């Protein structure tokens, strides 16, 4: 049976350096990073990627107060994705709309805050909020979207660590092809900077970035890299079957043509180059493409010393004979947005189908020779002769790997 073709018809996002795809893309091409110092409970001032989107654009004060930061990000991105797609929402039968959002973790922020709050009252649980349970259930961000937008189709979040943004999109593709929904809102969101535990955990691992200039703290592939800049953010896509998008005359950003997920089954933290290479190869095979067909690889590299090296080993293995394949990285601009990372990084490269530019990895002053490879785009954009296929890498803790292949749409 021939599989339905699934296309991207809308994009909504928020990142530390942009609250729309045009702004985000412009800043990537212009080399503009926006990382700031944020006061973190018990830890002092820490580098963080902070979003400054207007939550009141799509939510009332009470909804924001009673909900979660991840839910608010998800609502903003989903509403923007629907508007960008030109979908007529009023009167739509939303039983056929699904919401699938990847997330790294959820509930930590709310629980930490609530424990801190009752500590001011000698831990008297009478002061524990009655909003705790709906705020911390795993399906919360997607559920908040359904309540805000009146979506009555299936919704859930996909826990896939830092591979979750891709996993949300993959789930949506599968549900559309199964005929379970006619339109999907999919991607990834993260509220990680609101949790001191995230920062403390990375610091205890020796994996939390530090630099005198926050905008230079995230340094993938650089010899002086020293860890992760934790960030919040989100990117949600409107996905449809091609025939439905055509029927309403929708603009099409690209077509999702392949994907793969696998597991290292090796180490909770250290990536496994062989499994990453396998994931990339199988994603390309599912798309009936060869490595030489890929124009841009969006790398996952987080600026941890060993993590970057392992991915570069995998990249060299897969793309060693691909002179037209360029490799870049978005975390150097916005830090690591955890569950939103893969979805945001795809968005950063998606406009290349139109402008034929590969945005750079910035902050690379002294390339680590262990990360060296042909066509690594460093510090300035590269004009491409061809921009038709993007491979988006996203890898996460406990050894989960995801690769998504997106192709420039061709009406053939």
What does this entry look like structurally?
This protein has 412 residues and is of the alpha/beta class. It has 2 domains: 6-247, Peroxisomal Thiolase, Chain A, domain 1, CATH 3.40.47; 257-407, Peroxisomal Thiolase, Chain A, domain 1 (3-Layer(aba) Sandwich). It has helices at 21-29, 61-66, 69-85, 108-119, 132-136, 140-149, 164-178, 196-204, 242-247, 273-286, 305-319, 331-334, 341-349, 352-355; strands spanning 6-14, 36-40, 44-49, 97-103, 155-159, 183-190, 230-231, 233-241, 254-263, 296-298, 326-328, 357-358, 382-383, 389-396, 400-407. The strands form 3 sheets. It has a 10-stranded mixed β-sheet, with helices on both faces. The protein is globular, with a radius of gyration of 20 Å. The relative contact order is 0.18. The mean pLDDT is 96.
Biggest sheet layout: 10 strands, mixed
Going by CATH, the homologous superfamily of the largest domain would be Thiolase/Chalcone synthase
CATH architecture heading of the largest domain: 3-Layer(aba) Sandwich
Q: Give me the CATH fold name of the largest domain.
A: Peroxisomal Thiolase, Chain A, domain 1
Q: If you average the pLDDT, what whole number results?
A: 96
**Into which percentage range does the β-strand content fall?**
15-25%
Identify the quaternary structure here: single chain
Helix and strand run: EHEEHHEHHHEHEHEEHEHEHEHHHEEEE
Low-confidence parts lasting 5 or more residues at pLDDT below 50? none
What's the CATH C level of the largest domain? Alpha Beta
- The number of helices is 14
> What's the shape?
globular
Distance between the termini: 18 Å
